[in-house]
Amino acid sequence: MGILEDRLPDNILFTTVDKFLNWSKKNSLWYMLFATACCGIELMQTGASRYDLDRFGSVFRATPRQSDLMIVAGTITHKMADRVKRLYDQMPSPKYVIAMGSCANTGGPFYKDSYSVLKGVDKIIPVDVYVPGCPPKPEALIEGIIKLQQKIMQEKNLVKK
Amino acid sequence: MEPKGIYDILSKTFSSKIKQFLENTFPPTIIVESSAIVDVCKFLKNEEGLNFTSLMCLSGVDLKDQGKMAVVYHLFSITHRHKIALKVEIDRNEPHVPTVEGVWATANWYEREAYDLFGIIFDGHSDLRRILMPDDWEGYPMRKDYVYPKKYHTWDV
Amino acid sequence: MVNVDERFMEVSMGPQHPSTHGVLRLLVRTDGEVLTAARPYIGYLHRALEKIAERVTYPQFTPFTDRLDYLASMNCNLAYAMTVEKLLNIEIPRRAQIIRVIMAELNRISSHLIAFGSFSSDMGAFTPFLFGIREREFINDLFEMTCGSRLTYNYIRIGGVSKDLPEGFIDKAKEFLDYFPGKLKEYNELLSYNAIFIKRLANIAVITPEDALDYGVTGPNLRASGIKWDLRREEPYLIYNELDFDIPIGRGEMGTIGDAWDRYMMRIYEMEQSTKIVKQCLDMLAPGDYTAKVPKVLKPPAGEVYVRAENPRGELGFYLISDGSTKPYRLKIRAPSFANLSILPKLAKGVMIADLIAIIGSLDIILPEIDR
Question: What is the tens place of the pLDDT at every residue in A93-152?
C-alpha cells in the first residue's frame, strides 16, 4: 500500500481493488502458535485432523516475523505479559489478534483470587475478536476466525477512510 | 516398618532433638528440631532397615496464629515401602532452616519454591532465588497476611 | 567493560517456542553446537492455585484441579477427590469406582497420544501428530457424551462422579477399544522402529536408577530406568487390585536402559495396558449408585493427609491441612513434572541442541503442573 494508501477517491475501480486485496488477505491468515495453557490444546486440535484450519488457508508458523494473526490461547501471567507485548511488536503489519478463551478475555476462573494473572490480554495489546469458552470448542474458534475474516473484508486500504 | 518403630529408633539415636510424634495424621508425623534436620535426614536415608530413598514432597506452611512457620518433609522408602512425615517448626519473623539438598537432590527446587512463596531461608542452599514469581516481585505471596499489590509494572494486578 | 567469554554463546530458548511443551524458558550456553549448560526458568504460568485453594470451598476447587494437568484432567480430579475423601473417611460405591477407573485409563491413553504426537513433531516428523489427534478425537467424543466437555471435565467429584454413564457409552467404548490396538501397531511400524528415530534417541540422556530416585523422577521415566514401581500395583486404590495388567519397564532394547527411546516406548506399552484395563472394567460394570451421600456443606474434621495417585506423567500428590472449616487451610500440590524437569540441567551437559529437544520431549513435562 504505502504511498497509495488513503489517497484515492471512492469509486468503483478502487473499491474493487480494495475488495480484491481484502479477499486475498482474509484467505491466507497465517497464525502464530502462541499457546500457553489449556486453550492451546484446543488450538492444536483445531489445526489438526478433524477440524482442519488449513482449509481456511491458515497454517501455523512458529515465529512472529512470518505470521499475520496471533491467537492468544491461554492464561497470561504478569511474568509473561512483557513477552506478549514484545511478540506483538515483532509481528509485521497488517496484524490481527484473537483472544481465545476466558483467561485471555478477562482473566478467566482466576479473576477473583489470583495475584499473578493478567485480567485480560487487551490490557497490553489491541484485540480484534474475543472467543468465549473454557476452553472454546474448535467450532467456536472457527467461528471466531470467520468473524475476523468478515471484519477484514470491510477494511479500507486504498480509498480514503 | 511401623511408624512408631521408626520414631523409637530416632528417639534412641537423637534423643532431645526429636520433639513429638503425631499419630493421627496420614502418614504419621515426627516433629524434629530444626538444627538437627540434616543429620536426621542423612540417618533416615542411609540406615539399614530404614532406607528412605525418596523425598516425595517438601512444603512450607504458614501457622500465623501460633507465630510459627513449618516445613514438612514427606519421605518414602522404595525398598521397604514405608512412609513418614517430618515437620520442622521455626520462628515466623526469622525463618531459617538448614538445607537438605545434600541428602536428596530433588530438595533443591522445592526449597526454592518455599523461599519464593513463604520467605523461608534455607541455610547452605547453593542457589536460593525466586523460581515461580518474577524476579522483581516484592513480598511473599503465600503468607496468610499478604496484601495483593495494586500495580505491577504499568498494569493492575 | 563486561568480561565476555568469546568461546561460549548464551542463547535464550524463550517462553514462546514451538518445542518446549508450554511456556518454559531455557538459558542455554553453547560451544558451537554442543551445550555446556542448560538452565530452566519457570513461573510463566504461575496462576496461584494454592492461594486460590485457601479462598474457595472444597467442592469449588475441583474445576481448578482440571487446569493443573489438562491432558490428564480426570486423573487430577481423582487424586484431589481421593485426598478429601481420606479426610472425610467415606466409602465410594462400587459402580462409581469402576467408572472412575474407566475414565482415568481412557484419559491416560489420550494423554500418551499427545505425548507421542508432539514428541514426534519435535523430532521433525509431523504425520504421527495428526494420527495421534485422530485417535484422541474418538476419546474426546466419549468424554463429551458423558460430561459435556472435551478437555477440562470436572467429572470426578468428591464422593463419586457427577453423572452416570449415558446410553450407548459401553458400545461406543468397545468399538474404540477394538479399533485402537491396530493403530498402535501402525505407530510402531511408522515411527518406533524407524532407523532414523532410533539413531536420534538411543543412548541419549540416560537416567540411572540412583539419579532417578534422588531427583524424585516418577512415572514412565522411572520405569524406563528399570525400577518396577507403579502406584496402581504397589499401593492400589479404587479397584486396581482386582485387575490384570502388566507393568512394563525399560530393558535397553535399542541402547542403554533408561535412554530416551526407552522413555518413549514406555508410553506405547502403557497405552496397550490401559486398553486391557478398560476392557476388563467395561465387563465388570453392574447397576448401582454413581455417587455416595455427601453433605451439601463439606466440613472435614481437622487433620493432615498426603495422598498420591499415578498420573500419566508420574505421581501426583496432594498435601491437605484442614482446620475444620469449609475451606482448606493449606493445600500443597506435588506435581510430577516439577521433579521430572529438575533433572534436566544434569542431563543436558555435552549434548547437541537437537538432542536437548529430544530430552525435553522424552521427559514429557507439562508446564501448568510445574507452575501451578
Answer: 889 999 999 989 998 888 888 888 988 898 899 999 999 998 899 999 999 999 999 999
Q: What is the CATH number of the domain that holds C54?
A: 1.10.645.10
Q: Which residue has the cell 519435535?
A: C122
* Domain range for C77: 9-371
**Of C51, C133, C152, Cβ closest to residue A45:** C133
As for how many domains chain C has, the answer is: 1
**SS3 per-residue string spanning B84-131:** EEEEEEEECCCCEEECCCCCCCCHHHHHHHHHHHHCCEEECCCCCCCC
Predicted TM-score (pTM) of this structure: 0.92
Question: Does A112 touch chain B if contact means CB atoms closer than 8 Å?
Answer: no
The predicted-structure confidence for A68-91, as pLDDT tens digits, reads as follows 899 999 899 988 888 899 999 999
Tell me whether A113 touches chain B (CB under 8 Å). Answer: no
Instruction: List Cα–Cα distances, C248 to C48, C185, C197, C262, C266, in angstroms.
Output: 36, 17, 21, 10, 7
- Chain A residue with CA closest to B140: the answer is A115
Cα–Cα distance between C176 and B139 in angstroms, integer?
A: 52
Residues of chain B with a CB closer than 8 angstroms to some CB in chain C: 24-27, 29, 53-57, 59, 61-62, 72, 74, 78, 81, 85, 104-106, 108-110, 117, 130-134, 141-142
- Topology classification of domain B3-146: Beta Polymerase; domain 2 (3.30.460)
B55, B72, B130 member nearest C319 (Cβ): B72
* Orientation of helix C94-123 relative to helix C260-284, angle to 10°: 150
Structural domain includes residue C268: yes
Q: What is the Cα Rg of chain B in Å?
A: 17
The ipTM estimated for the assembled molecules is: 0.92
- Distance of CA A107 to CAs A41, A127, A148, C200, C372, Å? 18, 14, 22, 41, 15
